[in-house]
Amino acid sequence: MAHKQNTTRKAALVTGAGKRMGSAIARMLAEEGYDIALHCHTSMKEAKATADAIRKCGVRCEVFTADLRKGGYQTLMQKVFKTFPNLTLLINNASLFERKAFMETTEADYDANMAVHLKAPLFLTQEFSRKVKKGQVLNIVDTYVTKTTPAYFAYLLSKKALYEFTRMAARALSPNIRVNAVAPGTTLQSKDMSAQHRKKKEATLPMAALIEFNDVVEAVRFIINQPKITGECLFVDSGEQLL
Hints:
This protein is of the alpha/beta class.
């Protein structure tokens, strides 16, 4: 059974939170005492499992579905505020990740990546800022936002845009809304890496180890609890951005 609304407790919306990193972030926020608006697109089974685990922390958690590629963000924030009027934190975590080089990238690839990684965060942040007197936004970007790579062209281009949006929005929305980012590097939980590839990748990193979801979770925890940080991007990548 869902918990009754506690208007004295803060609430957070985490997009793409059904599984993997988004789920880990949502669980941490529940530990921090936040009610959770958990967004997913197709990962409903995983989202329900995450929500059940979160409710065991003694907070409220509700699942919201929306396809951010097709304008689902337009009504998502309205639905969340109706359920959680105490919303003070937005985590833009939803992501697409497909390996396609520049010459393989289609218009559909471009549109989908820009919709999920820039358009949805932008307009979710805009609607959030209209309703919240004091709050914060945190965007999950990528360690490669300050570099270039021929692979993942539409993905990286749109994440670079989200990185720059973070800085611009922080300036536009201060002092009432803080906007920051976390840039994860390659994780141990990467789905498309063999054990041999992981070992080879680790050997190239300054800290000689791939990161884990918990490393990103702790970076998020740090930023949300630092009231005078805005416009920053915290790289959590074992030094990968230095290469």
